[in-house]
Write a structure and sequence with these properties.
Blueprint (H helix, E strand, L loop, with lengths): L2 H18 L7 H16 L7 E7 L2 E9 L2 E8 L16 E4 L9 H14 L3 E5 L4 E5 L10 E5 L2 H6 L1 H8 L1 H5 L2 H10 L25 H18 L4 H6 L5 H18 L12 H11 L9 E5 L6 H12 L2 H4 L2 E7 L10 H17 L7 H7 L1 H9 L3 H6 L1 H18 L1 H14 L4 E7 L6 H18 L3 E6 L1 H7 L3 H5 L3 E4 L5 H15 L10 E3 L5 E3 L6 H9 L3 H10 L4 H12 L6 H9 L6 H10 L31 H15 L8 E2 H9 L5 H13 L3 E3 L12 E4 L1 H12 L1 H10 L5 H12 L4 H21 L12 H15 L9 H5 L6 E9 L4 E6 L4 E5 L6 E2 L9 E9 L2 E10 L6 E12 L4 E6 L5 E5 L16 E8 L5 E9 L2
Parallel strand pairs: 3-5, 8-11, 8-12, 9-10, 10-11, 21-23, 26-28
Antiparallel strand pairs: 1-2, 2-3, 4-7, 5-6, 6-7, 13-14, 15-17, 16-17, 18-19, 18-22, 19-20, 22-23, 24-25, 24-27, 25-26, 27-28
Helix pairs in contact: 1-2, 8-26, 14-19, 23-24, 24-27, 25-32, 26-28, 28-33, 29-32, 30-31, 32-33, 33-35, 34-35, 35-36
Length: 973
């Protein structure tokens, strides 16, 4: 039985009781207590905690304000039975009546009173009722509420006969979901519903697969293998080997190792007998210096796609020294395996850790009876020396029977106590440090996270020597840091930034160049490219260099791929395979482009991205490759085809001006209010918001919240930013969407189709198609925008319309970037920071705040370089140029005065990891530490780097107050 069926049974029972007692319901208070309260609570599901009575307003006291999650949502004006009147003979069913009409005139005073209270308090819906008659209306309606209709239930019979409508309007669950907006929309708005399917210029059935060349077919097998390994799905080693390091991750490596060693130094060193392990632990804890609580609980914080899980896995398998690694017992908890039910969280986590420990600690996967005797030896002694002493001395068999009964009860019924014993056993018997990593909590509620965090910390405090690691997104960390539980349990945090897609490509291509060998199963063949260059299949190893040219050196392509996938590495690799194997980019042209030093243009890259293997943009069922049409109507009711872009435009502007995470988000309510000022109905806004959340163009502040409500906050994602840029600046994308997006005007669709099928030059075809589509979008949008405000807050909306109009007048078929924004920086002297530079391979990246991106460079390609040597962290003057690969560093014009803060100091290497090429030094006679990378030394000196080495160096004090070695000046022999 559904919830509404249960409620209907309750309302019918209640109506029967009301009729039997109707003569005793005389006053307004009688109506409230005997009827109104009971209907709202018993039948409509509103908890009494949501009722606020007799609220003081400027012009009186409202009877009820009903709240949802602390927000005033519904106002109820109660009357004595008989006060309200309906001038109609039809009273047995729900009706929609104009508020200013003659039928509701006898109730006009109550309606006016309720509206005045609601307007002052900002409440969307008002109810006027005496318990028998119910009048429900919306307070804010274009044109004024009096000129619109209300839902009216004239009698208890009408409530009973039309209960589904009554429940949809006023039940707590439906009101929380704001279903009333859609219900009122049906009677307030006479907009046209889609009576026939949307029409696109090209039907999906007409879009054929493109034919591939012979070399492309033969290379398909190799390319699939290549990109499968690039993705890492079938090769976990590549995920560890090709983890993109940053200074933050290197410092996290070193700090985590120090914490781990600090804890291990407090583990029992002597091989004690099992029977004395608990007493030994007490003695050690008394005499040994224990690590602080903050060193035992660690947060690894980073955006989605920053590689937190890979980082932790790599740390314990490759970074931590083998001798230390052997003393650790990593326990990995994947919360995706949890049901998320708060009632089972504790038992699920407890059982998961128990299962893991039993498998790791005992050969048979569970403890033997002797193992259990050892684990509970302290209890054994307490029983033998205490309340069971006589039995122990007189009848050992009987004592053992009682102790086995105790063990059965502990293992079977006291699972938390059993887990605590297992952790003690791990530490004191097996001499290992338990390290519990709790992963994938981000998609769960804050309450779930808090419960998991508290539970893990409770076990840690019980056994003392146990580490906890929580990889979380920056958003989860932000919300979690505001809770009381976070401040109660001290912890340390390390931040991992999202890796640059170009760095990911570079490292993985480099790795595969060493490991991947072309398949020997394919016969050696010769192919003649369209440039007349003969290619051998055995030359495919050069293909990796072509990939580096496309995905590393071209900042347009890497940035676009990263944003479209919200920087998910696996999705980036899959999308790259789609592009490279697309017939749009001929593989033989890719290979010959390396020989002829040519390059693939960004328009062709976008064309391959959008079309894939087809003649035009096409999305098959289950084929989500990241690109969607932002012009697609998202409901069965006609609305502006620019609504998605209008919302993205607002959130984009909010992200650009926001100073922190909070300010880069907007509440659903503020978005609705913003667009209602432009005349867009709230139902259309909310429907569109749900659609673009599902497409990951925007994301909620709390990723665990699936239902959008008015106080939920959302922000634009990288994917949303990429789609906004494609929709407003990229002629290739705009042209493909014009051909394949379903639109509500069949004549325009036919016009676009005729242009596409014509035999005119391609440039004329694309220009005509874009102009027709642009004109359609602007005309349709104008039908739904009633107010063209010139306020500053609507500037982003005006910019959007200007950009869409530009597609109809621009003669340029290659509007791939915002030329205005880029051009103002070209040739100017800018301040940049060397993020990474590899002197051996002569490549690096400069970050520039003006473009919010990193620009690739090679010193041999610079027109001018004023620095004798370049090192990570240098703050420099530089200029930019632009070619078909995007932005390039044109010149490096020396240091920025006062920004590098260099000093010469004597240094001693305290720690060095030769496998990863980084370490830390002690600066002079101080206790200050400085980070260094091996590239601070001449490359012929790398083999001499070791702990204890003394040298003179330039030291930089960074903006975060930490030190870094810029370069070695001299080595002391």
């Amino acid at each position: 039985m559904t919830q509404v069926d249960i409620a209907e049974t309750k309302i019918n029972t209640l109506i029967k009781e009301i009729r039997e007692d109707i003569s005793a319901i005389e006053s307004e208070e009688d109506s409230k207590i005997k009827v109104i309260n009971r209907i709202f609570h018993e039948c409509l599901g509103w908890p009494f905690s949501s009722f606020i009575c007799e609220t003081n307003h400027e012009n009186g006291f409202s009877d009820y304000i009903l709240k949802i999650e602390g927000n005033a949502s519904l106002i109820v004006e109660a009357k004595r039975i008989g006060i309200l009147g309906i001038n109609s003979t039809i009273t047995d069913k729900c009706r929609t009546l104009k508020i200013s009409g003659s039928t509701l005139k006898p109730s006009s005073e109550g309606i006016k009173q309720a509206h005045s209270y609601a307007s002052e308090a900002g409440i969307p819906i008002s109810v006027v009722t005496d318990g028998i008659t119910w009048i429900i209306f919306k307070n804010w309606v274009p044109g004024g509420y009096r000129e619109k209709e209300a839902f009216v239930f004239p009698s208890l019979d009408s409530v009973s006969n039309s209960f589904s409508e009554f429940y949809e309007l006023l039940s707590f669950e439906n009101f929380k979901a704001k279903l009333f907006n859609a219900i009122f929309d049906k009677i307030h708005n006479s907009r046209q519903y889609l009576t026939s399917p949307l029409v696109s210029a090209l039907d999906p059935s007409e879009i054929n697969i493109l034919q591939k060349s012979p070399i492309a077919l033969d290379l398909e097998k190799i390319l699939n293998s290549f990109f499968t390994q690039l993705t890492g799905d079938e090769n976990s080693e590549i995920m560890k080997e090709c983890f993109v390091e940053s200074n933050e991750s290197r410092i996290a490596d070193y700090s985590l190792e120090k914490i781990t060693n600090g804890v291990l130094n407090n583990l029992p060193k002597d091989k004690n007998k099992v029977g004395s392990e608990l007493s030994n632990l007490v003695e050690i804890n008394i005499h040994a210096e224990m690590p602080s609580d903050s060193d035992m609980s660690v947060f690894i914080v980073g955006p989605t796609g920053s590689g937190k899980t890979t980082y932790i896995d790599r740390f314990f398998s490759k970074i931590l020294p083998l001798s230390t690694r052997k003393q650790c017992l990593p326990i990995n908890i994947n919360c995706l395996d949890a049901s998320g039910d708060d009632n089972t969280t504790v038992s699920w986590l407890t059982e998961t850790v128990i299962t893991f420990l039993e498998k790791e600690l005992f050969l048979e996967g569970f403890p033997s009876y002797k193992d259990l005797q050892g684990m509970y030896f302290n209890q054994y002694k307490r029983m033998a020396s205490g309340y069971l002493k006589k039995i122990y001395e007189n009848d050992k068999a009987a004592f053992d029977e009682k102790f086995s009964t105790f063990l059965e009860s502990e293992v079977r019924d006291n699972r938390e106590g059993y887990l605590e014993s297992l952790l003690h056993f791990t530490i004191h018997n097996r001499k290992k440090l338990p390290i519990i990593t709790v992963d994938n909590t981000d998609e769960f509620t804050l309450d779930f996270k808090i419960k998991i965090f508290q539970l893990c910390n409770s076990y840690r405090r019980k056994v003392n020597l146990c580490m906890l690691i929580f990889p979380v997104t920056d958003k989860s960390a932000w919300s979690f840091s505001k809770t009381d539980i976070f401040t109660i349990h001290q912890s340390r945090s390390f931040f991992l930034p999202t890796p640059s897609p170009r760095e990911v490509f570079r490292k993985r291509i480099e790795y595969l160049n060493k490991k991947l060998v072309a398949a020997d199963t394919i016969d050696s063949k010769d192919y003649l490219s369209n440039r007349g260059i003969r290619i051998k299949l055995t030359d495919i190893s050069k293909f990796a260099q072509v990939l580096e040219d496309i995905f590393v050196e071209n900042n347009f392509t890497a940035k676009t791929l990263g944003e479209l996938t919200n920087y998910n590495i696996r999705s980036i690799m899959n999308l790259s395979k789609r592009i490279i194997t697309s017939p749009v980019i001929r593989i033989e042209d890719l290979i010959t482009s390396y020989i002829t030093t040519g390059s693939i243009s960004f328009p062709k890259f976008v064309d391959a991205l959008i079309r894939g293997d087809y003649e035009a943009y096409r999305v098959s069922t289950g084929d989500d490759f990241g690109v969607v049409s932002t012009f697609k109507l998202s409901s069965d009711k006609i609305h502006s085809p620019l609504l998605t872009l209008r919302i993205l435009s607002l959130l984009r502007a909010t992200k650009q001006t926001g100073r922190d995470v909070d300010e880069r988000h907007l509440t659903i309510n503020s978005i609705v209010n913003y667009f209602e000022a432009l005349g867009i109905d709230s139902v259309d806004i909310e429907t569109c918001l749900k659609e673009i959340v599902s497409l990951r163009l925007i994301e909620p502040y709390d990723p665990s919240t699936n239902v959008l409500n008015e106080i939920q906050k959302v922000a634009i994602t990288y994917k949303g930013l990429a789609h906004y840029d494609l929709s407003t600046k990229n002629s290739v994308y705009f042209y493909q969407m014009a051909l394949t997006t379903g639109i509500c005007d069949s004549e325009v669709a036919h016009e676009i189709r005729s242009y596409f099928k014509s035999s005119r030059p391609f440039g004329e075809i694309t220009s005509s198609v874009r102009k027709a589509f642009s004109t359609y979008l602007i005309n349709e949008d104008s039908k739904f925008i009633t107010n063209n405000h010139n306020n500053e807050q609507f500037k982003c909306q005006r910019d959007l319309i200007r950009d869409i109009q530009a597609f109809s007048i621009s003669k340029n078929d290659d509007r791939t970037e915002d030329q205005d924004n880029l051009s103002i920086h070209l040739g100017k002297r800018l301040i940049g920071k060397i993020e990474r530079y590899d002197p051996e391979k002569d490549f690096g990246f400069v970050s520039l705040s003006e473009i919010d991106d990193e620009v690739y460079f090679k010193t041999k390609k610079l027109e001018n370089n004023e620095l004798d040597s370049i090192h990570d962290g240098d703050i420099i003057y530089c200029t930019l140029s632009k070619d078909n690969k995007g932005l390039q560093i044109k010149t490096i014009d020396g240091f920025v005065n006062g920004r590098n803060k260099l000093q010469t100091e004597k240094c001693l290497i305290k720690f060095y990891n030769p496998e990863r090429g980084y370490g830390f030094v002690i600066i002079g006679a101080t206790s200050n530490e400085a980070f260094f990378h091996k590239t601070a030394f001449p490359n012929n000196f790398y083999s001499h780097l070791k702990e204890g080495l003394e040298f003179k160096a330039e030291i930089r004090l960074k903006e975060d107050g930490k030190y870094q070695v810029r370069r070695c000046i001299d080595v002391f022999s």
